Give the backbone structure.
Amino acid sequence: MARAVTQQRKIINTAAAWGVGLLIFFPILWTILTSFKTEAQAISDPPVFLAFDWTLENYSVVMERSDYMRFLWNSVIIAGGSTLLGIIVAVPAAWSMAFVPSKRTKDILLWMLSTKMLPAVGVLYPIYLLFINLGLLDTRTGLVIVLMLMNLPIIVWMLYTYFKEIPGEILEAARMDGAALKEEILYVLTPMAVPGIASTVLLNFILAWNEAFWTLNLTAAKAAPLTAFIASYSSPEGLFYAKLSAASTMAIAPILILGWFSQKQLVSGLTFGAVK
Amino acid sequence: MSLHKSLAAATAMTLVMSGAVHAQTTVTIATVNNGDMVRMQGLSDEFTAAHPDIQLEWVTLEENVLRQRVTQDIAAKGGQFDVMTIGTYEVPIWGAQDWLVSLNDLPAEWDADDILPAIRNGLTVDGELYAAPFYGESSMVMYRKDLMENAGLEMPEAPTWENIKEAAAAMTDKENEIYGVCLRGKAGWGENMAFLTAMANSFGARWFDEEWKPELNGEEWATAVNFYMDLMNNYGPPGASTNGFNENLSLFQQGKCGMWIDATVAASFVTNPNDSTVADKVGFALAPDNGLGKRGNWLWAWSLAIPAGSDATDAAKTFVAWATSKEYTELVASKEGWANVPPGTRTSLYENPEYSKVPFAAMTLGSINAADPTAPSVKPVPYTGVQFVAIPEFAGIATQVGQEISAALAGQQSVEEALDKAQALTADEMEAAGY
């Protein structure tokens, strides 16, 4: 009896998980489907799900109109650069907070997180003026710095949480064996926290890839990433939903594929503390 | 040839080539994503072929994002763009601030006198032309000829609001999802307030009196907004408070609207058989009036302007002159037909016998000529602009007013409440701005 109930519950849980998963994925699926429709089919009422004349025309129009590879390359550099820089800054910061905390560590962590509560638009103008003076407008370097700073509180928090799970005695043993601070962080701490660091890297790469406020406001023609590529297909005067969907699909495809292949690492990293 | 000579020749070639590259001036153009602008981008190879010393870089953005980006850039003197696509709202404000380069010295063959007077007036400040119009638009009535015929009615070429109400009542068939009239309900200064401001003009209403005191709780505004609510509640589609241009276009193309009063640029969409199920059944009429001498149509021109901080002013002027020239019009006509030529800017286009065959050409010209940005309402006003007031504060104020009226349309408050709130918030904002 107990076995039957467990089996039943398992089926219900699985069905519920699939239901929630599909619900979350549905907007993306709809965008992908719309990208293969004509503009007239994209707005038809009632909407058509699969029974339409599939066409690649939208993709061909988008490829003809925009230099997709340039936008893609900018996205890779900006998301990758800001994540890498963030990790380089955050690992020592999280180490000191986790292993040599002071009276104010908790306050500093909370203060760092509180900076995320300020709406980004609140600091747009000062940052824009700074960028003009430093010659960073429409440069990938400028965006790497800004996105790194925007995501730094999250990176530090995540790494701090993972590092807290690592017994301090191991690092102490390394120190007793003569390891200097640099070696302790690089050769002892980092390898032990690889799942945590990997999931932090992945999450921040995704956040930086999808960031649309700063990337739209601080770029023009040269450093514009895929968010600007999508924005160029949106229009309040004209129904271009199929083309917009094609552009969106092309913009999310790389990150979707990356997420698919790294989901195991992402999940194991995010549940790092819970498993312990 | 020896290795040394080969190397020397290669170095010389490289130097010459790099010199040529350095001589190229890059012009960065910020533009909106609509059919005419995208077409211009596609045809710009012709320009660069004729001007190999000028390289064009394009930044295409959604209209509202573009407006925010270029405003921010020009106010902070960011120097990101050499040519900006802006409208008749921005030009008078930015021109008065000396943020734009005067285009009075464009070459004689560009023929400034050929620009339609209503459009030219909207882009001129103190005698200086600050932007070259790329395409102009007004608003008009698009209606279903077949539904009018079934109802036994005929649409006058210049209808009154009562004609519209009568036609809407006759065409509405809610059981078959046909709604007599589709109008903008989505909140925003360029959304429902563009339509309502133009409509209110024809009812004798105005935003401000000559002393800049708001008049939103006056009788004329109440009459106009109540008429709009009556039309929408009785003959409009459900959920109209979230409908903007695109939502109404979609409804009209699917045959669910008897009439749609909106931008003249929509004419080419609703008559396109690839996208519209009613392409061969659409008629056009001037925007309605109320017998007071003003029609409820607006005036807008997407125009190309050069920010004062640009370091490529001469090259930018060359490009602007090309993109807004008669020759460009002919280029589009030769490649994609006269129906796809950017409309509403030049007198010569409407004198062209080929263009007069385009079904919506005459109505577009009539609508543009019926709008006067310097005297938009029946009573005198201290401002310019037909569906807007050309002051920097207007966009913020009208968006808030639009939210109040949209809430009234959604049934959350009465028209009287909405207009009282609109009056109070407008008075506060204007006082804070020092009027």
